[in-house]
Every structure is written in structure tokens, then in C-alpha cells.
Amino acid sequence: MTDSTLRLPAEWEPQAAVLIAWPHAGTDWAERLEAVESTYVALAAAVTRFQPLIIVVADAALRAHVTAKLQAAQADMARVRLVEVPYDDTWLRDSGPITLRDGARFQLTDFRFTGWGGKFGAEQDDALIAGLVEAGVFGYAAHKRIDWALEGGGIESDGAGTILTTWRCLVQRHPEQSREEMTAILREGLHAQRVLWLDYGYLEGDDTDAHIDTLARFAPGERIVYQACDDAGDVHHDELQRMGEELASLRTVDGKPYKLYPLPWAKPILDQGRRLAASYANYLIVNGAVLVPAYGDAADDEAARIIGQAHPGRSVVQVPCRPLIWQNGSLHCITMQLPAGLIDA
């Protein structure tokens, strides 16, 4: 029986910290490590302006290296905690904890992580949450393992019982299950009241099978920010137009349409002929600010302005994310927020 007092907070609710894992030569970042570290340094400096940052590192040598990097960048080291736990990769949105709360009670929900449907090895990443629990990062929070594949980037929560997700992703993970069956599992596992599904939307260069956090995001005040495409000659145009129509047809619990905030479309970014997924929807909300990916494109500033409009009262900080999309993700994908009260700040 579901304990309905637990809920999945919205990202814009108060946070204790942001959790990341640092890239190193033993990860898939090895080939372009220096470039991607520049993004991680910028991210760490931005987060620590507003709140604590927990950084997972592989060993003592990486701990010392990261400390030196962040000190050189004048990050607020008083807000940085480094924890040594093994990991395969650095996409903590998908391998980190999905934290439910009931007041001061917390549950670290630990869904099975399969490397995005078996595309990559993920044994250490699947054990990451247990490793962080063993390291004492989360105090007395309950740890609940759910043997069903789900990544944090595949769901959006409005904090009030509504989950937004994509059929394209979850049917790839669970081809044997119906939408009704998956809806029931999501409702029970996330203590949600309802699940809204999108059938359209994808990005070339995205190997998550259309994670919702690359496409559409809940924002306060019954808003949805989403990645649009106004270039009729682009291969994404029809699909994202249809996704926009789907979003316009969605209704709040009160039966009202959501307020929609379409984001501009960056010009194609190619790497040795391969299209990379430069989504502005992949931003991160922190206490008092929203951190927005920048790709060195003319649309960067307009995207930041629109995201700021959808999150009034927050500072808007652009983080250079072009190195991240080489590995098919962006800013939100490498982070996981932890709700206020979960850890000792």
C-alpha cells in the first residue's frame, strides 16, 4: 500500500545541495577531459554561489586534483564536500537518488540503472546510491531499492503529485509493459497522483531515448518550459511541433491549460559529422538561481531570458556546456538536487 504522505518535490523547492561526480581519465570523458573539466569547474563555481555542492570522486588523487582546480577557480570551498565512491560515468541525474520527502522524513528512491537500456556498462553506477548511503552522505534517510529501470532524467515533478514523462523512453526500457502498467508503477514508486505522457519529441545525439529533461520542464505557477524548433528545414521541426501541440493540450489538476514557454533552437552543432543534442531545456534550478546551458550559439541569451521569465525572482547564470553534449547530455544530466533537510549543510 502506498504511503501517500511522501511526495517527490519540485526542483524549485528549497535544496540542501547539488550532487555531481567528477570526470576523470577512467570515464568516457578521457579523450576530451580538459575541455569537460572546464564545464565542471564553471558549474561548481556557479552552484557554490548559492548552496552546497557534493562532489563524488573516484579516489584520493582525484580528490586532490579537484580541490586544486576549484581553489584556482575561487569556488567557495566551504560549500564543497568531496566523497570517494566508485562510479562508471558522471550522469548523476540518472544514477543518483530520486528523493521523496514527508516533512523531515526522506526516502532515497533507488530505481535500477541499466546504462540507458543496456547501451553502456553500469554496474558501479547502479550501486552508487548504496555507496553514498554507506559513506554517510544522507544521514538517517531511508533507502528504498526498486527493481524497475528508471532514470531521474526521464521524469519531471511539479511537487504536487503530477509526473511528466515520455513514452519513447519508457517503452524502450520496458517493452513488455503497457502504458497503464507503467503508469501504476510510476504512481506507486514516486507517490504521484497522476502521470502525463508525451508521445512526441526527440533530439538527435541523445542516447537516453528522449528523456523529458531534454524536452520539457515544469516551472512554478503551472508553467512548462520546452524545447521548440522554428526551423522548418530541420529534421526536428515536425516532431517538436507535435510535442508543442501535445503540451498545449495538457491540463492542470484544475482543468486549466499550462502556461507554455517555448525555447529557441540552436543552430546544428556537429562533431565529426555527428549531430549533438544542444537542448536549452536541460537547465538546473538551485536556491535563488537557475543555471542555464550555453553552447556558444546566438540563441544562448534568448534561451536564458525565457527561462528566467519562467522562474521569476531567480538569478540566471549561464554555464558553458558545449563540451558536455559531445557525450550526449548537458547541464541537468550531470547533476542531481537534494532537497533541503536531507543532509547537514
Automatic annotation (TrEMBL):
Query: Which residues constitute the signal peptide according to the record?
Result: none
User: Where does the source fall among the domains of life?
Assistant: Bacteria
What keywords tag this UniProt record?
Answer: Hydrolase
User: Which Gene3D superfamilies does this chain map to?
Assistant: L-arginine/glycine Amidinotransferase, Chain A
List, alphabetically, the PANTHER family matched.
AGMATINE DEIMINASE-RELATED
Protein name, UniProt field: Agmatine deiminase family protein
Q: What is the source species?
A: Dyella acidiphila
